[in-house]
Amino acid sequence: MIRIELLSKENFRLESLDSFHRKQDVKKVYRRVDGTYKLIELPYIEDWRFDEKRAVAKEISSDKYITYLALENEKVVGFIGLLKKLNGLYMILEVISVDSEYRGQGIGRQLFHLGIQEAEKAGADALYISACSSEETIAFYQVMGCELAKRPIKEMAEAEPCDLQMVCNIKVRKAEISIR
């Protein structure tokens, strides 16, 4: 049984991501071509080395973040890290990941919804994501109601020029949910 909890000293340590499988076999990515985004073939494997796992663990457990964990027993099988400090009217979704062995079970969707709730509590108008441009990643964010940012955060766009800058407008989502 998978449970989702706010990260705490009781459920997370620096070693908690050591056995986390981040692997993603990317086939196609979005790239800007003639002013629009198009899918192009660019196969590669996205994965985290041991030192990257430890760096992510250190970062998401810092005081700068609101982090939720998806846990099976005591094993981290997914997580979302949100920056506590708003950037204007945006709450930044810094990282969301589900262990490759647990994808397709709705864990990412549950974590994303918690991100929306945290953004709403903080008074943000939207979640902001500098998203990996892989076809699967962008498809996930689109299903979650995200769209390309009309006004990207310049520093984030420049830091990750291949990422797609996306937003999930909280007010639009609330209106859509209340209509259903």
Task: List the defining traits of the structure above.
180 residues, alpha+beta, single chain, 5 helices
What string, H for helix and E for strand, traces the elements in order? EEEHEEEHEHEHEH
The first-level CATH class name? Alpha Beta
Structural class: alpha+beta
Termini gap: 29 Å
Give a count of the beta strands, DSSP E runs of length 2 or more.
Answer: 9
**CATH topology group:** Aminopeptidase
Radius of gyration: 16 Å
Strand order of the largest sheet: 1-4-5-6-7-9-8
| CATH fourth-tier homologous superfamily | Gcn5-related N-acetyltransferase (GNAT)
Describe the structure.
The protein has 180 residues and is α+β, with helices and mostly antiparallel strands. It has one domain: Gcn5-related N-acetyltransferase (GNAT) (Aminopeptidase), CATH 3.40.630.30. 29% of the residues lie in helices and 37% in strands. The protein is built from five helices and nine strands; from the N terminus they run βββαβββαβαβαβα. It has helices spanning 50-60, 107-122, 135-143, 154-159, 170-179; strands at 2-6, 24-33, 36-46, 65-72, 75-83, 90-98, 126-131, 147-148, 164-169. The strands form two sheets. A seven-stranded mixed β-sheet has the order 1-4-5-6-7-9-8. The protein has a two-stranded antiparallel ribbon with strand order 2-3. A hairpin with a 6-residue loop joins strand 5 and strand 6. The mean pLDDT is 94.
